[in-house]
Amino acid sequence: MTMTDQKNKNAALNNTAPNNNIEPLFAKDYNVYINHTDAGGIVYHANHLVFFENCRRDWFTKLGLNGYFLQTDDGDVQHFVVSQADLQYKRAILLDEIISVRIDKVELKPASMIFYQSIHRTLSDDDTAKTTSSQLLSSTKIVIACVQNLVKPEPMANEQTDNDKTNTTVNTTPMRPIRVPKQLRDSIGQAISAQTGGYQ
Fold first, then answer.
1. Do 119 and 57 touch, CB atoms closer than 8 A?
2. Statement: residue 18 has pLDDT above 80
3. Rg of the chain taking only CA atoms, in angstroms
4. Per-position DSSP letters for 43-94, written without gaps between them
5. Is 50 exposed, middle or buried (0-12, 13-18, 19+ CB in 10 A)?
6. 142-164: string of b/e by CB count within 10 Å (b at 16+)?
């Protein structure tokens, strides 16, 4: 790996770190249960992604959207898939604690959305617990691509042999990329404007 490649990799990882100077777009507390952890009571690394996913879906619900699935007037189903995930693990998440999972920032692209998220542990700064602070446990940059289901299979373009006449369709990709739906773009755009005071 060249020095340039290493710098680019480090820059990408640093971009997952949340900006503590701005309020998150959305935050929700989640309980850590035994099914999230290994035998030592530490949350599996992969389950960090589960918490991030649950947080995104809960935010969509708060925005009045039906999870990850939207239906057009023509009956087409539009939904979202993760195309990239960069994670930084800082500290272990432990059994029976309550964690704060946040959406710190969202970038809207023509056919995708980039989520910057983080998981925090709340700490008491004194014995009276009147003041608290948070400890970063992990952070991520997740790219969500917008796609639309292909309901009807496409017919074969080439001529069929006698042996292939029973198969009138070919296996095509069951979805295709699309632009971010207007309803979703408008809802997220309003949330971003509220967070940044109208400046993006």
1. no
2. no
3. 21
4. B-HHHHHHHHHHHHHHHHHHTT--TT-EE-TT--EEEEEEEEEEEEE-S--B
5. middle
6. bbbbbbbeeeeeeeeeeeeeeee
Which pLDDT score, from 0 to 100, does residue 54 have? Answer: 96
Q: Which residue in 191, 120, 178, 183 sits closest to 150, CA to CA?
A: 178
- The answer on pLDDT for 15 being more than 70 is no
Between CA 132 and CA 46, with CA 48 as vertex, the angle to 5 degrees is 155
d(CA 143, CA 109): 10
Which residues are 144's β-sheet partners? 82, 113
- Per-residue pLDDT tens for 108-160? 999 999 999 999 998 876 666 566 788 999 999 999 999 988 765 555 555 55
Maximum alpha-carbon separation in the chain:
82
**For the ranges 84-88, 174-178, 196-200, the one whose mean pLDDT is highest:** 84-88
- DSSP one-letter string for 80-93: EEEEEEEEEE-S--
Which has the closest alpha carbon to 109: 146, 152, 134? 146
User: What three-state secondary structure class fits 104?
Assistant: strand
Q: Comparing C-alpha atoms, which of 93, 69, 45 is closest to residue 149?
A: 69
